[in-house]
Specification:
The complex is a heterodimer of chains A (118) and B (110). Helices cover 0% and strands 54% of the residues of chain A. Chain A is built from no helices and 11 strands. The radius of gyration of chain A is 13 Å and the shape is globular. With 110 residues, chain B is mainly β. Chain B has strands at 9-12, 18-23, 35-40, 47-50, 64-69, 72-77, 86-93, 99-101, 105-109. In chain B, strands 1, 3, 4, 7, 8 and 9 form a 6-stranded mixed β-sheet that branches. A 3-stranded antiparallel β-sheet of chain B has the order 2-6-5, with no helix packed on it. The relative contact order of chain B is 0.34. Classes of the chains: A mainly beta (118), B mainly beta (110). The A-B interface holds A 37, 39, 45-49, 52, 54, 58, 60, 62-64, 96, 102-106, 108-111 and B 1, 3, 34, 36, 38, 45-48, 51-52, 57, 89, 91, 93, 96-104.
């Protein structure tokens, strides 16, 4: 049974850096076939893929946000850490982490709502 | 890398069939057979409905089916039921291990 859970601040101030942690179980992120991604969703809007990290430590970022994003993994803790710099109110939304095997996000965390406000 | 294009909303009556389109380009939907569809109820996480364009994960109703023609993928829901009312999102492989999502479609069951 694969589970994922996001954790981190619910409110960040403009210009601050957002750091979110995805704690997972049911798989190991040490093999190349597995990956964990971050996807966000502004209130009432569409899903937007942000970043992916693979078991072989390969990393991919959304081209439009690449300069602001970092994704890392701690295999010993079964965690993936995501950071987004220079937060703005337009970055307000629910941030999901999800397991990806192959081409699809087959298991998702419940999501965490992040509000950017001074 | 622009978002895939989906209609903002579709509607249908119970028992009817509806189709949601997802239009990309020859660099994503048109090039690879890796289109996925997700169902999302309000306040919930998305759920994988269709993968590899037309395959259903275990437990997903046969009423949901996927197809592709050229740069456009489609999700068809047959025998519409009240519980199908939700948001539907497509995603596609965009090469180089990149992912792209669509704009989402709100399905209303009349």
């Amino acid at each position: 049974q694969i589970t994922l859970r996001e954790s981190g601040p619910t409110v960040v101030k403009p210009t601050q850096t957002l750091t979110l942690t995805c704690t997972f179980s049911g798989f190991s992120l040490s093999s190349g076939g597995e990956s964990v991604g971050w996807i966000r969703q502004p209130p009432g809007k569409a899903l937007e893929w942000l970043a992916l990290i693979y078991g072989d430590d390969d990393k991919r970022y959304s081209p439009s946000l690449k300069s602001r994003l970092t994704i890392t993994k701690d295999t010993s803790k079964d965690q993936v850490v995501f950071t987004m710099t220079n937060m703005d109110p337009v970055d307000t939304g629910t941030y999901f982490c999800a397991h990806k095997r192959g081409w699809d996000f087959d298991f998702w965390g419940q999501g965490t709502l992040v509000t950017v406000s001074s | 890398q622009s978002a895939l294009t989906q209609p903002a909303s579709v509607s249908g009556s119970p028992g009817q069939s509806i189709t949601i389109s997802c239009t990309g380009t020859s660099n994503d939907v048109g090039r690879y057979d890796h289109v996925s569809w997700y169902q999302q109820h309000p306040g919930k996480a998305p759920k994988l409905l269709i993968y590899a364009g037309s395959e259903r994960p275990s437990g997903v109703s046969v009423r949901f089916s996927g197809s592709k023609s050229g740069n456009t993928a489609s999700l068809t829901i047959s025998g519409l039921q009240a519980e199908d009312e939700a948001d539907y999102h497509c995603s596609a492989y965009a090469g180089d291990r990149l992912v792209i999502f669509g704009g989402g479609t709100k399905l209303t069951v009349l």
